[in-house]
Amino acid sequence: MTNKLNWIDRTLLQIAPKFTAERLAWKTHVRTYYDSGNSERLNAGWTPINTTAEATNQGERDRIRSRARDLERNSDVAEAILSTFERNVISTGFRLQAKVLDKKGNDDETLNAQIEELFSQWCKAKNCDIAERSSFLEMQAMAMRRIKVDGGFIFIKSYQGTGNLPFCLQMREVDDIDGAMYSSGLKVGNRIINGIEVNEYNKQMAFWLRTTTPDGLYTIRSTRIDAKNVIYLNKLKRPSQIREISELAITSGRIRDINEFVEAVSIKERILACLSVFIKKITPSGTIGRGTGTVTTGKDGQVAAPTRTIAPGIISELSPGEDVQVVNPNGQATNAKEFIMFQQRLAGSGQGISYESVSRDLSQVNYSSARQGLLEDQSTYKVWQLFFIEKFLDEVYKEFIISAVITNQLDIKDFWLDKEKYLKHSWIAPGWSWIDPLKEVKANETALNTGQTTLAELSAQRGQDWKEVLTQLKKEKDYKDKLGLVTTTTGGTNNAGKTDTTAP
Fold first, then answer.
1. Confidence of residue 503 (pLDDT cuts 50, 70, 90)
2. What does 390-406 look like in DSSP terms, one character per residue?
3. How far apart (Å, rounded) are the C-alpha atoms in residues 32 and 348?
4. 409 band by pLDDT with thresholds 50, 70 and 90
5. φ and ψ of 393, to 5 deg
6. Domain containing residue 11
7. Is residue 278 within 8 Å of 318, Cβ to Cβ?
């Protein structure tokens, strides 16, 4: 301790030890400006190590992933979280809107319709998946689930498809990344970090993926795949992060606590529901004398009492000297519901969603709280939808268009002269319904009439194309006019050929 003191403290220690000790204690107490930064008794065991993101994650990445997968297989709470994201982020899929303009600056309806139809056909499993097993929608749902559980997912761009276009996708798990690869023999400045080759700026240059045999076993050889042919979906939380980490890392411990608690409560209730009967022998059975009685021994050599069973409606006589004692335990798990709700609420909030979304329990909400919770949940889902659009869908669309032009599926003469013009598009993310549609419709009507929103924005919130909405309305109106039906002010019809202005 003396070596850590300055010369003033060492001098005072020789003259006034008690005063010096009090002085040092005071200095230690006031040295930190944050309560979380002091090293007093309450924080004495809180000594984390500050390292780069990759150094932090690499030692526990595989263990966390395997535990998250175990929860995925065996925990209904974990499955509730995963299915919630699948339902709300991916749902029925993202809808493509081609945005190619003609020479006059208007939408090229013919070409856009051709692109959207061709893409709709490509989304089928036999066209988009090199293994011809999953449709494009199923790929997105699987990617969402694997990102939450494994931390990431890999799509390999392939041009060996046998469908309507040669471009297709191969799905690979993050387990395939060979973390044992070394950086020897690489280009100067490049290095391999846990299976991903990066340059001096940590830009991904290539992925080293382990080769598998048809039965799923890994071979010794690993294949280098250029990064431009890989779509690696993972969310970075720090600039120094290279590889993925499970999104369930922060909540997996709590989910496991719920499982353990539920199992313990279940076992307790099963025990409490049992009726046990013990036979009490007043006089020992057997014949008087050495070695004349029958003795039952267990596996450990100890004397074991004979076990008898009871069945419903049975009538049995006891042996002489035997009495019956009934053990009927009482009690119940009175706090199980509150504990599970609290833990489930924390598990949901750790993933950015409400307890109601995870548990499907709406018994403790009113309209206002349910709507506010829904808005907060939708903010979480929108972030993930934007992630899929920017990191996955846009990249797939670009390769799709290029493949269609090369194979003459799309006849665009000047494509290579103005490629960006023909790559313009947008995605309509899946929408959501509201708790009280009437209130929302009135609010939307007011916002639309006052210029605070547009039909395109309102339609996109429901996952619809505003042009298709107007086209469908026009078709319905023309068909009603053909049948002689007149639309009322409230959206109803009559068959008298007159406008019905009667309010309901």
1. very low
2. IIIIHHHHHHHHHHHHH
3. 34
4. very high
5. -65, -45
6. 2-47
7. no
pTM of the predicted model as reported, rounded to 2 decimal places: 0.76
For helices 76-85 and 61-74, the axis angle rounded to 10 degrees is 100
What is the dihedral angle through the alpha carbons of 198, 201, 203, 204, rounded to the nearest 10 degrees? 10
Residue with tokens 């090229």: 108
pLDDT at 90 over 80: yes
Distance CA 490, CA 504 (A): 8
Which tops the pLDDT comparison, 25 or 481? Answer: 481
Which of 424, 389, 463 lies closest to 140, judged by CA? 389
- The 3-class secondary structure across 197-253, one letter per residue, is EECCCCCEEEEEEEEECCCCCEEEEEEEEEHHHEEEEECCCCCCCCCCCCCCCCCHH
Residue whose entry in the numeric block shows the structure tokens 């009934």: 326
Residue 422's nearest CA partner among 128, 102, 95, 165 is 102
Asked if residue 319 is part of any domain, the answer here is no
Q: Number of folded domains in the chain? A: 1
Residue 493 pLDDT > 50, yes or no?
A: no
Own/partner long-range contacts of 213-218 (Cβ < 8 Å, ≥24 apart): none
Instruction: Report the distance separating Cα 391 and Cα 483, nearest Å.
Output: 49
What local confidence, expressed as pLDDT, does residue 249 receive?
94
Is 260 within 8 Å of 253 (Cβ atoms)? no
Residue 497: pLDDT band with limits 50, 70, 90: very low
Is the per-residue pLDDT at 420 higher than 70?
Answer: yes
Q: Residue 298: enclosing H or E segment and its boundaries?
A: none
The token pair at 136 is 């494009």
Measure the CA angle with vertex 79, ends 74 and 80; round to 5°: 140
DSSP helix/strand/coil, 139:
helix
Sheet holding 168-172, edge to edge: 168-172, 152-158, 230-234
Please tell me which residue, 233 or 182, carries the higher pLDDT value. 233
Q: Is 268 part of a structural domain of the chain? A: no
Residue 38 domain-assigned (yes or no): yes
Residues in Cβ contact with 258 at an 8 Å cutoff, skipping those fewer than 6 apart:
75, 77, 340, 343, 344, 347
Q: Flag whether 500 is in a domain.
A: no
Between CA 328 and CA 478 the distance in angstroms is: 76
User: What would you measure as the largest C-alpha separation in the chain, in angstroms?
Assistant: 117
